[in-house]
């Protein structure tokens, strides 16, 4: 296996990155994929959302693994990886990761430290999702350097235009300078309240502005208190509210994500002939 690596990225906080990592990750696992989710945020929200309420108490986290790469120390198979009952593996993070970000500044090949770590586990998985921190700092650059795909959740509540330009320009820069394999899967509208016209306007605006250049996923994630409850429960929306509309939406997103890679494979095969 050589995993697809998908960074879930937006420098704005509270747009649904972590929720998407949980439910796309477990969605892919439910579709029979071998999935690792990586917490790339020193806040450890993904780690907490997957049932580890105290990330600081974990013996090994992502910063330890990145530290090993920096020190050129060997990484043992499966080292530090946790298993979630719903079938995904997790590389957790805690606040130490923010110290790691600081030490990256003076490191050799500082943009590729996360990629080098993931290279050591990549053959164990079909999909690796990276939950990015809400900034365009060195950890996010590391995530974009390690990935071949990026998914951008955008909250339908606010006009995202300016922040999105900045993010797309960072993605472009990483692609040109470090990681030509990086492709944008698309923009995912989250927390959509279909009762308001505002959400519809934003959706239409995004499709008008970016639709010709970037996919806006056909699936939109509805706003629901049931989704909000899941992070405290340590489980996915499929376990928490199986018949609900958010579970259905994340299932559809999972299908869309799998379809994108099928199409790309077909394209590649066509070119190869
Ligand atoms: P980010 O990782 O971008 O900061 P989160 O995934 O943590 O965003 O989501 C921000 C907040 O919104 C969290 O409290 C989360 O539980 C809540 N949330 C996420 N998705 C939904 C949704 N579809 N409906 C309602 N609340 C949601
Ligand atoms: Mg988050």
Task: Set out the fold topology.
Blueprint: E1 4-8, H1 17-30, E2 35-40, H2 45-49, H3 62-70, E3 82-83, E4 89-91, H4 96-104, H5 113-119, E5 127-132, H6 138-146, E6 149-155, H7 161-177, E7 183-190, H8 197-210, H9 225-233, H10 237-240, H11 245-272
Parallel strand pairs: 1-5, 1-6, 2-4, 2-5, 6-7
Antiparallel strand pairs: 3-4
Helix pairs in contact: 1-11, 3-4, 3-5, 5-6
Bound molecules: adenosine-5'-diphosphate and magnesium ion.
Magnesium ion (MG) binds next to helix 1.
Provide a descriptive summary of the structure in words.
By secondary structure, the protein is α/β, with parallel strands linked by helices. 46% of the residues lie in helices and 14% in strands. It contains eleven helices and seven strands. The protein has helices spanning 17-30, 45-49, 62-70, 96-104, 113-119, 138-146, 161-177, 197-210, 225-233, 237-240, 245-272; strands at 4-8, 35-40, 82-83, 89-91, 127-132, 149-155, 183-190. Strands 3-4-2-5-1-6-7 form a seven-stranded mixed β-sheet, sandwiched between helices. The radius of gyration is 18 Å and the shape is globular. The model has no long low-confidence stretch (mean pLDDT 94). It binds adenosine-5'-diphosphate and magnesium ion. Adenosine-5'-diphosphate binds next to helix 1 and helix 9.
Short description:
The protein is α/β, with parallel strands linked by helices and 273 residues long.
């Amino acid at each position: 296996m050589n995993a697809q690596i998908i960074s879930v990225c937006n420098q704005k906080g509270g747009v649904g990155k972590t929720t998407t990592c949980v439910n796309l990750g477990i969605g892919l696992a439910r579709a029979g994929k071998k999935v690792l989710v990586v917490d790339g945020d020193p806040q450890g929200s993904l780690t907490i959302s997957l049932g580890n309420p105290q990330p600081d108490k974990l013996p090994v986290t992502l910063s330890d693994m990145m530290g090993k790469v920096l020190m050129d120390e060997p990484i043992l198979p499966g080292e530090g990886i946790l298993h979630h009952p719903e079938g995904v593996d997790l590389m957790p993070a805690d606040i130490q990761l923010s110290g790691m970000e600081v030490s990256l500044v003076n490191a050799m090949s500082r943009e590729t430290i996360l990629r080098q770590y993931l290279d050591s586990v990549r053959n164990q998985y079909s999909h690796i999702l990276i939950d990015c921190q809400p900034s365009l700092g060195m950890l996010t650059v590391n995530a974009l350097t390690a990935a071949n795909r990026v998914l951008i959740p955008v909250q339908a509540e606010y006009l995202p235009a300016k922040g999105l330009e900045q993010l797309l320009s960072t993605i472009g820069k990483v692609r040109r300078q470090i990681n030509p394999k990086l492709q944008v899967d698309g923009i995912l509208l989250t927390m959509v309240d279909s009762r308001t016209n505002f959400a519809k306007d934003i959706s239409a605006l995004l499709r008008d502005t970016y639709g010709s250049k970037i996919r806006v996923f056909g699936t939109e994630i509805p706003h629901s208190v049931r989704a909000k409850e899941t992070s405290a429960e340590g489980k996915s929306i499929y376990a928490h509210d199986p018949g609900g509309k958010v579970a259905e939406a994340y299932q559809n997103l999972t299908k869309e994500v799998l379809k994108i890679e099928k199409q790309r494979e077909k394209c590649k095969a066509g070119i190869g002939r």
